[in-house]
Amino acid sequence: MKNSFKKRIPVALAAIMVIVLTAIPLSQFLYSKNPYNALEEKFRILNQILYYINQLYFEDVDMDKLMEGAFKGIFDELDPHSVYIPAKQQEEMDELFRGSFQGIGIEFDILHGYITVISPVADSPSERAGLLPGDQIIAINNEDAFEITKKDVFKKLRGPKGSSVDITIRRIGGEKFDVTIIRDDIPIYSVRAVLMLNNETGYIWLTRFSATTDDEVRTALNQLEAQGMKKLIFDLRNNSGGFLEQAAAISNLFIAHDDTLVFTKGKSVSVEQVFISDPKKGREDYPLIVLINRGSASASEIVAGAIQDLDRGLVVGETSFGKGLVQRQLPLNDGSAIRVTIARYYTPSGRLIQRPYKNGDIKDYYKELYIQNREAVLDSLKELRPKYKTRAGRTVYGGGGITPDVYIRWELNLQKNTQKLLSHPKRPFFNWGSNYASTHNNEINLYENFRDNWDLDDNDFQNFIDYVNNEEIEINREELEIDKAYILKMLKSEIAGAHWGKDEAIGIRLTYDNQVMDALDYFNEAAGFINYSQ
User: Fold this and answer.
1) Residue 431: which residues within 8 A CB-CB, separation 6 or more?
2) Known catalytic residue: 323?
3) Strands, DSSP E only, in 66-216?
4) N or C: where does the chain have the smaller number of CB atoms within 10 Å of the terminal CB?
């Protein structure tokens, strides 16, 4: 027995040595695959780099700024939508997507040294106090507000809900009066405009998907239905997106049967979601046109994709941005945040509409949106993209945004001098229109009559040119003459805004919007989807 045991010892030792020798490289392999071990070494290198820069660099260095640059560099190696957000920027973004702040509620600019009301926010303390476009705030709490900075305007006019601020208003025509305004929650609306384009056609312009979007769109639809809406243009142009849940909720407003609206897939099962429509929340009994362009991204594409895949309505305009990634925002200890892509989203047919990107190559990623003849280039590549079928069997495409059912090109080409005049800091269009509305108040009656039958003429155009010259704004008369029809339309919209409000101002501008006006011709085609969806 002893001899037998001794014979087994070398064999056992050899086996142990094999295990040990194989375990050593295996442990090294596992160690090298652990990202935290690799990071530990990189952190030591980073500390060395920062130490040398702090000690030896020839000028003083803002280390906070340096580190923010390093954080941004990390995200440059990921996809274009994963980002680091500095604390100050994050504060502003929170306000935007939370959907409200506290103050008096005005859209304003500094004109001729004074705070000038461009528009009171709907249902805000300023609107309830009777402030009008063109009003100048010449004093705040009895302090002269001449040449105040925009930063100080925010400091003085914003404040806690329930607090008060005394302001002195000078109205067009010289009238001056004092008013005390009680600050309140001021909504930041995602519905920019809601109006009737004609006796039957409603129009909703949605600019973002924030926490209040579902409620806002429901309210807008109810408002239009009360005015006799029988068909709808839902404008998602230049809407860069927002909350995924809100996109699903908005899609559901137009879907009245049980179906998938959007679903997500990621590395972790915990981030995977499927949004199913609730038939009780949607309506499918009126023709729907969804208007998109190259600035329609993310949540906008979810809505357009659901409408298209479920054959609920007609998608019209230009091919959308092509963002099929879902981000989660995570707060950091210093008030900054990171937004990290956690999943891809897919339309009901299974389409991923994310267009290709190279890590860190953000410039080229966005540059692609502005290539000449973009739609023709995309169309030529269409056959290379993955194909899917809508519920009714129509072919749709993945991998590069939402391709519209009907392509309508944007056709506004303005002269450079007209463009400069439209964006001039003295706001000549707004000022001229506000003055005209004030001095011709008795001549402006019913909005529908104003929209359809009332126009400015050559004398008004000359008066506007004279006004611009008196303001010492440099112009090129020949270029402005080329764009005369457009200029008169924009002046008319400013008159409408001063007399009625922002919805009516936008209603006038839309009559010069070729994509909206051309879309009206496709409602017979859009109506064809009603029979299928029901």
Assistant:
1) 111, 134, 467
2) yes
3) 83-85, 100-103, 106-111, 114-120, 136-140, 143-144, 164-170, 176-182, 184-187, 191-196, 201-206
4) N
Global pTM? 0.81
Q: Is it the case that residue 30 has pLDDT exceeding 80?
A: no
State the catalytic residue, choosing from 119, 210, 251, 298: 298
Helix, strand, coil percentages, rounded to 5, for the chain: 45, 20, 35
Token pair belonging to 437: 């509305």
Mean pLDDT for all residues in the chain: 88
Distances (CA, A) of 485 to 198, 272, 320, 434, 505: 22, 52, 30, 19, 16
Catalytic residue among 156, 323, 492, 502: 323
pLDDT tens figures, 498-530: 999 999 999 999 999 999 999 999 999 999 998
Q: Which of 4-18, 68-82, 140-154, 346-360 has the lowest mean pLDDT?
A: 4-18
pLDDT score recorded for residue 356: 87
Among 46-50, 406-410, 451-455, 502-506, the minimum mean pLDDT is found in 46-50
**Quick one: pLDDT at residue 98?**
63
Confidence class for position 96, pLDDT limits 50, 70, 90: low
- What is the C-alpha to C-alpha distance for residues 121 and 513, in angstroms, rounded to an integer? 24
CA distances from 380 to 1, 297, 389, 509 (A): 84, 22, 20, 34
| Residue 14 vs residues 2, 19, 24: alpha-carbon distances, Å | 19, 9, 15
User: If you average pLDDT over residues 200-206, what whole number do you get?
Assistant: 98
The CA R_g of the chain, rounded to the nearest whole Å, is: 30
- Provide the residue type at 215 as one letter: D
Q: Is 298 assigned a catalytic role? A: yes
Instruction: Look at residues 205, 237, 233 and name the one whose alpha carbon lies nearest to residue 289.
Output: 233
Answer whether 252's CB lies under 8 Å from 279's CB: no
**Rounded-to-10 torsion of CA 96, 99, 105, 109:** 20
SS3 sequence of 406-419:
EECCCCCCCCHHHH
Q: How far is CA 302 from CA 118, 180, 306, 467, in A?
A: 33, 45, 6, 46
Neighbours of 529 (CB within 10 A): 22
- Compute the residue count for the chain: 534
State how far Cα 428 lies from the chain centre: 27
Q: Which domains does the chain have, with CATH numbers?
A: 34-76 (no CATH), 100-187 (2.30.42.10), 191-411 (3.90.226.10), 416-512 (no CATH)
Q: Beta partners for 183?
A: none
